[in-house]
Write a structure and sequence with these properties.
Length: 153
C-alpha cells in the first residue's frame, strides 16, 4: 500500500478541502503515516475501528464524541476517553476514505479507512457517566476513561 498523492489544484499545490464523513458507517484503518513518514499498514491484531452514527463517533483507540464539518474539514470533538480534538480533510479514493489531518500537538497524519461490511441494522449512540457506545449494524465500539474496545456481533 502506498500513500495517496495530494489532490492537484489550479495553483498546482495540494488541496486541503475535504468532504464530510458519511452520516453512518463502520471503518477499518488500513494504514497510517505520521508527520509525512512512510505509510504503515495496520496488522490484524492491531486493528483500529471508527464508527460514525449521525454526529456521534467512537474510535477503538480510546476516544469518542461528536463530529462537525466546516465545509472543508471534519473536527473530531473528543468528549470521552483520550482528551483533545483532531481535525482532518477527507477525500474518497474508490470506496476508501483518505484522511489528512492534524493532532492538537501540531503533528500531522494521513490515515486510510476502508468500509467494513455488516453496517445494516441497529445504529445508534449511547452515553453515560464516563463512557460512550456507538453501534453501526454488527459493529460496536465502547469508550471509557481507560480504553476503547471494539466488538463484531
Amino acid at each position: 500500500m502506498t500513500a495517496p498523492e495530494p489532490e492537484p489544484t489550479a495553483g498546482g499545490g495540494g488541496d486541503d478541502r475535504g468532504v464530510p464523513v458519511p452520516e453512518y458507517g463502520a471503518w477499518l484503518r488500513r494504514g497510517i503515516s505520521r508527520n509525512g513518514g512512510p505509510l504503515i499498514e495496520d496488522l490484524p491484531d492491531g486493528e483500529v475501528v471508527w464508527l460514525q452514527a449521525g454526529s456521534y463517533y467512537a474510535d477503538s483507540r480510546g476516544f469518542a464524541g461528536t463530529t462537525s464539518f466546516d465545509g472543508s474539514h471534519v473536527r473530531f470533538h473528543h468528549l470521552t476517553g483520550e482528551p483533545g480534538d483532531d481535525t482532518g480533510a477527507f477525500r474518497w479514493d474508490g470506496a476508501d476514505l483518505v484522511e489528512r489531518g492534524m493532532n492538537p500537538d501540531g503533528s500531522t497524519f494521513l490515515e486510510i479507512w476502508t468500509p467494513l461490511p455488516g453496517t445494516d441494522g441497529t445504529t445508534g449512540s449511547w452515553s453515560g457517566p464516563h463512557h460512550h457506545v456507538v453501534r453501526v449494524g454488527r459493529h460496536v465500539v465502547h469508550v471509557d476513561s481507560r480504553a476503547g474496545t471494539y466488538w463484531r456481533l
